[in-house]
Amino acid sequence: MENLTISDAPQGAGGVPPQQQQPTLGRPSPLPQQLPAQMFTTAAQLLDLTDKKLMVALRDGRKLTGILRSWDQFANLVLQSTKERIFVPPNTGPNQPRGLYADVDQGIFLVRGENVLLLGEIDLDKDDDAPPGYDVAEVEVVQALAKQKKQEDRAKEKAKVKKLATLGFDGENVGETLL
């Protein structure tokens, strides 16, 4: 795929740039400012990523890695050999100066397109390397620490919303957090 920018001139008839074409009926042809068709992000751009290993970040915070096998016009994805990578930030547990992560096998995974926040191709040369600042750990340990961190974050958010409510601020999720 070409790397095009908005400053690239669109090609006219026969591949000749419009400014080099002859004017029609004595008038110079206008130079429209438009993006090339390749610049638009559509589900069709997934064609280049088919059968490649991807990392997909979902709206709920999960990170999935797998091989893209199929997709549709709504950007629904089918991932094969999917693994969910769970992260626990540094200093979450006792004597834990570095972060921890673990991979959980998920098999074939169907992802609804509207839940995809970000996706990108994985560099296979760096695929086996641990993320900088993180060490691999047992799945059970990482899941327990991640659950504990999520509960702590939820308690902090609840306290923050209560404090803001006493000051007269009402958020859009106040009802969900207070329950």
Brief overview, please?
The protein has 179 residues and is of the alpha+beta class. It has 2 helices and 6 strands. Strands 5-1-2-3-4-6 form a 6-stranded mixed sheet.
Question: What this model shows, in words?
Answer:
The protein is of the alpha+beta class. It has helices at residues 139-166, 174-178, and strands at residues 53-58, 63-71, 77-88, 99-111, 116-121, 134-136. Strands 5-1-2-3-4-6 form a six-stranded mixed beta sheet. A hairpin with a 5-residue loop joins strand 2 (63-71) and strand 3 (77-88). The radius of gyration is 24 Å and the shape is extended. The chain starts with 52 loop residues before the first strand and ends with a helix. 9% of the residues are buried. The model has no long low-confidence stretch (mean pLDDT 81).
Describe the main β-sheet briefly: 6 strands, mixed
Distance between the termini: 50 Å
Helix content: 10-25%
Strand portion = 25-35%
Rg, alpha carbons: 24 Å
What is the succession of H and E elements? EEEEEEHH
> What general form does the structure show?
extended
Task: Furnish the topology, listing elements before pairings.
Elements: E1 53-58, E2 63-71, E3 77-88, E4 99-111, E5 116-121, E6 134-136, H1 139-166, H2 174-178
Parallel strand pairs: 4-6
Antiparallel strand pairs: 1-2, 1-5, 2-3, 3-4
List keywords for this structure.
alpha+beta, 179 residues, 2 helices, extended, single chain
